[in-house]
Amino acid sequence: MTDKTYPPTDAMAATAHADKVTYDAMYAHSIADPDGFWRDEGQRLDWITPYTRVKNTSFAAGNIDIRWFEDGTLNVAANCIDRHLATRGDQTAIIWEPDDPNQGAEHITYRQLHADVSCFANVLKAMGVGRGDRVVIYLPMIPQAAYAMLACARIGAIHSVVFAGFSADALAARVNGSAAKVVITADEAPRGGKNTPLKINADKAFDKITTDTAMLVVRRTGGAVAMKDGRDHWLHEMEGQVGNDCPPEPMNAEDPLFILYTSGSTGQPKGVVHCTGGYLVYAAMTHQYTFDYHDGDVFWCTADVGWVTGHSYIVYGPLANGATTVMFEGVPTWPDAGRFWQVCAKHKVNQFYTAPTAIRALMGKGEGFVAGHDLSALKVLGTVGEPINPEAWHWYNDVVGLGRVPIVDTWWQTETGGHLLTPLPGATTTKPGSATLPFFGITPVVLEPETGREIATTEAEGVLCITDSWPGQMRTIWGDHDRFEQTYFTQYPGMFFSGDGCRRDADGYYWITGRVDDVINVSGHRMGTAEVESALVAHRAVNEAAVVGYPHDIKGQGIYAYVSLMAGEAPTEALRKELSEFVRGEIGPIAKPDLIQFAPGLPKTRSGKIMRRILRKIAENDFGALGDTSTLAEPEVVDDLIANRMNRV
Ligand code: WTA
């Protein structure tokens, strides 16, 4: 590890939207006068009714109320499509790169996008969907996923995208949670050369869906599927029955745009709600500045639309900016570990945005897969999802960027809508592993975890909070505003608590150290340990389960489950497999435990609270310093856990 720093090149500083002087001045303005700053920035969108009020936000206990541009009206789809038609109707809006490299990419122009989204919106209307209704989108990475999102936005319906890797049970919970009128799915989802039977998963989900919900099915592979009369409809058949004319619905800036479920430290996933105006202003602005996006550039974010990264940086941010955005159906390692670079070269990608876990996986396959692809179009490389370790950073910098392309390490969350801490390519000197400095309008503070006191010195280590609102902030948890307040605003009253720990160095740079709650980060996917635990205890053989994260070379964190069995159940290898598969069925492949340790008992305090600190240490194979175990009800269970630990590296 070196402490070498990486200043922007002169060329980048000269052409970028912001150099250091501009960043400093704009940041200062955004903090001193948020109203004035965002009043101007809001103008990047087309408003039907112009706003007169800009910021009206409160983080006060009992009154968490966040509104931006609250008297303005606009339509998100019109901002992402219609307003570009006059100037860039024939420009490619979406480049769709299918799973199979031999299938050939599709280039969808803004004009085609307009027709397809309008038609899709009319199909939804014909199915009875209107303003404020919920639509669940359970699709592979195909253009129809973007059409579906934009079609909802066009008619004022609220979409809730469910990652296609989630199981039928997880899908059912999300459909029931929002009482969705329609679930949009596809026959099959091709990924890495294999087809997932998405429609069959959706059918299984419908066994548990208790709401009055119809299904709209996209034909992707043509694989045979059963259609249920009266409930299921083919998109292509419905499209034949409606026209392409669908005027965009004027929406209030504070009308919900989407719900996106994400994991927390307790209970079931919560439906994060983002609204129309502020979210789009923030997604568009961060997309432009963080990636230094310029007209004509080709932008590729490799995330899935099932995550917030796909919402903000495949669909909404880029399209609001009139960009060309790449949508990729496949995986980084199929047909081989050169796929990302082959696609970058093929489409002359200018900005490339991925997760550290993907970089580590590709790094392990060797440099040979990068060499031979012409990556000279690359101008900016980005990462998101977890802290990037210096080895991966240097590989990204040296092997992919050949030392000439700036890296932006962007820290943000589903809750934040867009980047909160990030370098800007023409402004910020980077340090490998640091998300560097706040974006415009963001006021981070580091607090002492126990007391909540702000650490005022430049160098600080503690928990990361944000003291004031920004336009992209989530507004509430769907159907549970109290939980919103409880989760984010009560631990440190008056502030938004991120759930992350961080360090601030002598230069004021932020270094995210990871979650301080019971959320783990597996391959850049957020997972509540409580969710995996409740899946495990739903199995007949399981008496109790406790789940923690442990360091994993590729995934960042792996899932380590301690399981105590019901009396009479034998701790066999077969059962271990069965439990793993069971969790996969309950939540999805990403939740499958990497290691399962059968334990006669879990370490508990005398009041019955599981001591996770001890379980984490043992999972990390660091049991020399377990700290104080004197409060344990049965100290001897710890000896058994250590003796039979599963991670010995
Ligand atoms: C983590 C993803 C370090 C963090 C956009 C956060 C990061 C959680 C970074 C949110 C980063 C995201 N460096 N950690 N650059 N980006 N994280 O909601 O722990 O899926 O709280 O949003 O990912 O995950 P989420």
From TrEMBL:
<keyword id="KW-0547">Nucleotide-binding</keyword>
<feature type="domain" description="AMP-dependent synthetase/ligase">
    <location>
        <begin position="82"/>
        <end position="469"/>
    </location>
</feature>
<dbReference type="InterPro" id="IPR000873">
    <property type="entry name" value="AMP-dep_synth/lig_dom"/>
</dbReference>
<feature type="binding site">
    <location>
        <begin position="409"/>
        <end position="414"/>
    </location>
    <ligand>
        <name>ATP</name>
    </ligand>
</feature>
<keyword id="KW-0067">ATP-binding</keyword>
<dbReference type="Pfam" id="PF13193">
    <property type="entry name" value="AMP-binding_C"/>
</dbReference>
<comment type="function">
    <text>Catalyzes the conversion of acetate into acetyl-CoA (AcCoA), an essential intermediate at the junction of anabolic and catabolic pathways. AcsA undergoes a two-step reaction. In the first half reaction, AcsA combines acetate with ATP to form acetyl-adenylate (AcAMP) intermediate. In the second half reaction, it can then transfer the acetyl group from AcAMP to the sulfhydryl group of CoA, forming the product AcCoA.</text>
</comment>
<feature type="binding site">
    <location>
        <position position="537"/>
    </location>
    <ligand>
        <name>Mg(2+)</name>
    </ligand>
</feature>
<feature type="modified residue" description="N6-acetyllysine">
    <location>
        <position position="609"/>
    </location>
</feature>
<dbReference type="InterPro" id="IPR025110">
    <property type="entry name" value="AMP-bd_C"/>
</dbReference>
<feature type="domain" description="AMP-binding enzyme C-terminal">
    <location>
        <begin position="531"/>
        <end position="609"/>
    </location>
</feature>
<feature type="binding site">
    <location>
        <position position="500"/>
    </location>
    <ligand>
        <name>ATP</name>
    </ligand>
</feature>
<feature type="binding site">
    <location>
        <position position="542"/>
    </location>
    <ligand>
        <name>Mg(2+)</name>
    </ligand>
</feature>
<dbReference type="GO" id="GO:0019427">
    <property type="term" value="P:acetyl-CoA biosynthetic process from acetate"/>
</dbReference>
<dbReference type="GO" id="GO:0005524">
    <property type="term" value="F:ATP binding"/>
</dbReference>
<feature type="binding site">
    <location>
        <position position="526"/>
    </location>
    <ligand>
        <name>ATP</name>
    </ligand>
</feature>
<keyword id="KW-0460">Magnesium</keyword>
<feature type="binding site">
    <location>
        <begin position="191"/>
        <end position="194"/>
    </location>
    <ligand>
        <name>CoA</name>
    </ligand>
</feature>
<feature type="binding site">
    <location>
        <position position="309"/>
    </location>
    <ligand>
        <name>CoA</name>
    </ligand>
</feature>
<keyword id="KW-0436">Ligase</keyword>
<dbReference type="InterPro" id="IPR020845">
    <property type="entry name" value="AMP-binding_CS"/>
</dbReference>
<dbReference type="InterPro" id="IPR011904">
    <property type="entry name" value="Ac_CoA_lig"/>
</dbReference>
<feature type="domain" description="Acetyl-coenzyme A synthetase N-terminal">
    <location>
        <begin position="23"/>
        <end position="80"/>
    </location>
</feature>
<feature type="binding site">
    <location>
        <begin position="385"/>
        <end position="387"/>
    </location>
    <ligand>
        <name>ATP</name>
    </ligand>
</feature>
<dbReference type="Pfam" id="PF16177">
    <property type="entry name" value="ACAS_N"/>
</dbReference>
<feature type="binding site">
    <location>
        <position position="515"/>
    </location>
    <ligand>
        <name>ATP</name>
    </ligand>
</feature>
<keyword id="KW-0479">Metal-binding</keyword>
<dbReference type="GO" id="GO:0005829">
    <property type="term" value="C:cytosol"/>
</dbReference>
<protein>
    <recommendedName>
        <fullName>Acetyl-coenzyme A synthetase</fullName>
        <ecNumber>6.2.1.1</ecNumber>
    </recommendedName>
</protein>
<feature type="binding site">
    <location>
        <position position="523"/>
    </location>
    <ligand>
        <name>CoA</name>
    </ligand>
</feature>
<dbReference type="InterPro" id="IPR042099">
    <property type="entry name" value="ANL_N_sf"/>
</dbReference>
<dbReference type="InterPro" id="IPR032387">
    <property type="entry name" value="ACAS_N"/>
</dbReference>
<dbReference type="GO" id="GO:0016208">
    <property type="term" value="F:AMP binding"/>
</dbReference>
<comment type="similarity">
    <text>Belongs to the ATP-dependent AMP-binding enzyme family.</text>
</comment>
<dbReference type="InterPro" id="IPR045851">
    <property type="entry name" value="AMP-bd_C_sf"/>
</dbReference>
<dbReference type="Pfam" id="PF00501">
    <property type="entry name" value="AMP-binding"/>
</dbReference>
<dbReference type="GO" id="GO:0046872">
    <property type="term" value="F:metal ion binding"/>
</dbReference>
<keyword id="KW-0007">Acetylation</keyword>
<feature type="binding site">
    <location>
        <position position="584"/>
    </location>
    <ligand>
        <name>CoA</name>
    </ligand>
</feature>
<feature type="binding site">
    <location>
        <position position="539"/>
    </location>
    <ligand>
        <name>Mg(2+)</name>
    </ligand>
</feature>
<dbReference type="GO" id="GO:0003987">
    <property type="term" value="F:acetate-CoA ligase activity"/>
</dbReference>
